[in-house]
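Re: the request from the purification team.
They wanted to know what the chain is likely to look like in 3D before they choose a buffer screen. I agreed to run a prediction and write the result into the notebook, where they can find it.
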Amino acid sequence: MNLADKINQPVFHHVGNVADSLSRPCYVVGGYVRDIFLHRHSKDIDFVTVGSGIKVAEAVAATLGKGCQAHVFRNFGTAQVKRHDLELEFVGARRESYSRDSRKPIVEDGTLDDDLSRRDFTINAMAICVNAAEFGELIDPFDGLADLDDQLIRTPLDPDVTFSDDPLRMMRAIRFATQLGFSIVPETFDAIARNADRIGIISRERIADELMKIMASPMPSIGWELLAKCGLLIHILPELDAMRGVETVNGRGHKDNFYHTLQVVDNVARKSKNVWLRWAALFHDIAKPVTKRWDAKLGWTFHNHNFIGARMIPRIFRDMRLPMNEKMKYVQKMVELHMRPIALVEDVVTDSAVRRMIFDAADDIDDLMTLCEADITSKNEAKVKRFLDNFALVRRKMTELEERDRIRCFQPPVSGEEIMEIFGLRPCREVGTIKEAIKNAILDGVIPNERAAALELMHDEARRLGLSPVSDTL
């Protein structure tokens, strides 16, 4: 098959001409070729040449004009050339072999067939020639194009060898299946299950990178369900794996918290591209296995699972090498607060409760509401409608109170420094008591969020504590 029209761009002709001048066969390979057939645009282009890829890269850079140079990584035998918004990667064709305890290969020079056979999946093991004589010719030794048409993920060679050599490929198989909506062929999936424990030699950072791509996919649940079914999940996130299954006592069971969680994640994904809100959805019930109790009167209970789950988040993020920064704190906050809106709609929606929820969630209140609406996964349509109608009421009340009381960006009308100055105090418990009284009075609607009312309450509270102002300034 000739694909000259698919790569009829100056960059491919230019690289091909340089390769011809060096008498080097040269091909565009991998993801760029795959994405041509998937009609996906990519700015990263990988080239394989028989012989030194570094020499071809240096020659390409030298002919692209002033300021363009090849960035060489000799330890890996690769070089990179950046031109405008394109990133060109060059490597020599190679064959690889592996030791049992490492995914770092022993690399030798090889043929194009050697290079394509070492690749992870057939859909990534295609090449297109850029040399002038065969420009646009497709090389597809493993029928990757047929697998693309059939939407299948399979390895070019024995999957047990492929995954044992480089266990990260197991994560990549599941990631591609999730991103593309493809199926993993049974023999490949079974090999993942047989080699799942090999994932232990892969760094947590590399695993986290694949998980982030799964979470950014249109339906993240595909990946998480595959991870559970093949046995990888228990190795990479045992806390989530522990949520699988239903326990029954006296004929009373509870919903499968794992599959409920996956539905919540997908519900959030349909509403938001915020990947950290999706992580919050994944972890919102993470403490249910450790808080699950049977009560003869109440049935199954999961008391305080939101608070205990929030305390679990830092350790989980640390173990998974996810960022220990404001992203982690955001997820932790969402997990802790996710029961608040539900508690509101199950009770009378009071102004005070809504104010406190807005105060605690602050700028993340809209995300919290999105998460809580996604958490309604009941198959009882009447129940779902009742909850969603009540959430709509909460949203209306939030808008009214926010416009009136400015709670989301709450700043105390009277600061602690002012209280200390007025009453001649140093930092002490009494200052905190007065500030807390003012905050609670505003959130409970006792006083408006205004300075005059806050000052009056400050003086009342100070008198109760036996304090007197040192001046009559305020």
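For the purification team: The chain has a mean pLDDT of 89.
Please add any questions underneath this entry.
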